[in-house]
Write a structure and sequence with these properties.
The chain is of the alpha/beta class. It has 2 domains: about 5-165, Rossmann fold; about 170-285, N-(1-d-carboxylethyl)-l-norvaline Dehydrogenase, domain 2. About 50% of the residues lie in helices and about 15% in strands. The strands form 2 sheets. It has a 6-stranded parallel sheet, sandwiched between helices. The protein has a 3-stranded mixed sheet with strand order 7-8-9. It is globular. Bound molecules: NADP nicotinamide-adenine-dinucleotide phosphate. NADP nicotinamide-adenine-dinucleotide phosphate (NAP) binds next to α4. The site of NADP nicotinamide-adenine-dinucleotide phosphate (NAP) has 26 residues, from α4.
């Protein structure tokens, strides 16, 4: 029998992910702090819960896709939070990006109360979420992950088992370290060439003609050429993740010198007022004169 699924967080990622669960035939009940944002999904056949608590009461499997640790805490332990309705027989999958430490702590509290906890952040952005092309970085008890894999498989093209709870988040940190640096690298190369009299079009044509071409660079080319950065992965989220990367590096003893640079750069993006733009808007910081 298919589980009754609850989904919290109708943001850039949560909305298309929840829509794909619905399209796959799952019975879906959703909650979003700003209820109006869930309307398109209600029209597509989901039902709306008035609170995380009501949602947790009614489903076997609860998925979270919210901003980060504070939002996860709010939906679990805030007013009408879900926690008190969880327990034996229920599974919580957190797909929001949080630090590995936060995931391990969450696992300890939830599994201590009998809830099965799966830490499963995703690699891939809005387009991948829409096209079911996410890579799901699942961790937790292997048997429990196997049990929910048919659900996770409707959200992405690959489910990768990363180990015990927290290791999915650890994998996500590694991937986002690379992602943030690659984006900054492309942006700086374009800004640098442009300052020397090359056109961004010509630089990007050369990038795409050779071995440097990749999906990320293709996805961001239009933004760099138009100077418009509509948010797919907001810069404020990249900055949040850079902070988790540095915190994690301190805990594990990894040097991560470029991770420190990443945090510095994207924080400058925030102070340039770019938090709500796509993280490709780091270009604005890198094209600015030194100072
Ligand atoms: P988003 O568009 O900013 O949506 C955030 C969601 O979290 C919204 O539904 C928001 O509710 C909810 N939320 C925030 N604070 C809350 C609180 N205190 N209590 C309850 N709900 C709260 O974010 P997103 O881009 O979908 O990202 C979601 C997660 O996926 C983040 O952890 C992000 O790092 C990760 N991620 C994003 C991408 C991407 O490309 N966008 C890719 C991979 C992973 P409201 O609607 O009421 O504001």
């Amino acid at each position: 029998m298919q589980p009754a699924i609850g989904f919290i967080g109708m943001g850039i990622m949560g909305m298309p992910m929840a829509a794909n669960l619905l399209k796959a035939g799952f019975t879906l009940k959703v909650y979003n702090r700003t209820a109006a944002k869930a309307q398109p999904l209600i029209e597509a056949g989901a039902t709306l819960a008035a609170s995380p608590r009501e949602l947790a009461q009614e489903v076997d499997l609860l998925i979270l896709m919210v901003t980060g640790p504070e939002a996860v805490q709010d939906v679990l332990w805030g007013r009408e939070g879900a926690f008190r309705e969880l327990g034996p027989g229920k599974t919580l999958i957190n797909m929001s990006t949080v630090s590995p430490r936060f995931s391990r702590e969450l696992n300890s509290v939830l599994s201590g109360a009998g809830t099965t906890f799966i830490d499963a952040p995703v690699s891939g952005s809005k387009k991948a979420a829409e096209e079911k092309a996410l890579i799901i970085l699942a961790s937790g008890p292997q048997e429990a992950v196997a049990q929910v894999t048919p659900v996770l498989a409707t959200l992405g093209k690959k489910v990768v088992y990363c180990g015990e709870a927290g290791q999915g988040s650890m994998m996500k940190m590694s991937i986002n370290l690379l992602l943030g640096l690659m984006m900054a690298g492309l942006a700086e190369a374009v800004a640098f060439g442009r300052a020397g009299g090359l056109s961004p079009e010509a630089i990007l044509e050369v990038v795409h003609a050779g071995p440097l071409s990749c999906g990320l660079f293709q996805l961001k080319t239009e933004m760099l050429l138009s100077g418009e950065f509509p948010p797919q992965f907001p810069l404020k989220h990249m900055t949040k993740d850079a902070k988790f990367i540095i915190d994690t590096a301190f805990e594990t003893g990894a040097g991560a010198p470029l991770g420190h640079l990443l945090l510095h750069l994207y924080r400058r993006g925030l102070s340039h007022g770019l938090g709500e733009e796509d993280f490709a808007a780091i270009y604005r910081v890198l094209e600015a004169p030194p100072g």
